[in-house]
Amino acid sequence: MARALHALLLAHATHTWATDPLAGAVDIAPPAWAPAVYTGEHPSVRELHREYGNIFRHGNRNAASHLWASFLLDRAPHMSLARLLHFFTGFCAVSGSPVQPGDFTRYVLTLPLVSGGTATGFMYYCCWPCVCDTQDFIRVDTRTVASSDGESRLHFAVIGDPCRNASALRTPFVQPFYGRDTTTLEREAPEVRCV
């Protein structure tokens, strides 16, 4: 049986590369998020989707699923591991689009591990081109996550740090979607920022 492969894009081992100018200086935990501590059965991923405006402050989630992940990981200590994993099913690993978990958005993939070998698991997507991008650009790494259940070592889908070559965000390319001509990643993915 395939393990869950948690849809998440991080710059290798940290999520601060695109969002926190004081990376590593001070680690301030956010207050408890109501859906994280809700005592009912299972909160809906729609509760995560309602946070869209708080997560994507520059108005566009293109290629910024790392911000969904950062939001959830920052609040992980307040929720059970099962609840955390449930919320990770609510967005596309590549585009960052909000998705409803189900048979039509769940794919099983085998991807290379950063450390060698492969890992097989489920990921959630908005469309098939994102599945292709995953196979081309995403690898799997592990990370220890602290939830209210304690620490767990989990597999995560990762990409390299785009800020290692920040000028590439301004390199023109032909956009294959929307009938556009030439554009840049900086224009198409405004939430991907180097600080």
Q: Can you lay out the helices and strands and say which pair or pack?
A:
Layout: E1 3-4, H1 34-37, H2 45-49, H3 52-55, H4 65-75, H5 81-87, E2 106-112, E3 118-124, H6 128-137, E4 139-147, E5 150-158, E6 173-174, E7 182-183, H7 185-188
Parallel strand pairs: 1-3
Antiparallel strand pairs: 2-3, 4-5, 6-7
Task: Name a few traits of the molecule.
195 residues, alpha+beta, 3-stranded mixed sheet, 7 helices, 7 strands, disordered N terminus
Question: Your description of this structure?
Answer:
The chain has 195 residues and is of the alpha+beta class. It has one domain. Helices cover 23% and strands 19% of the residues. It contains seven helices and seven strands, in the order βαααααββαββββα. It has helices at 34-37, 45-49, 52-55, 65-75, 81-87, 128-137, 185-188, and strands at 3-4, 106-112, 118-124, 139-147, 150-158, 173-174, 182-183. A three-stranded mixed β-sheet has the order 1-3-2, with helices on one face. It is globular and about 50 Å long. It starts with a strand and ends in a 7-residue tail after the last helix. The model is unreliable at 1-26 (pLDDT under 50).
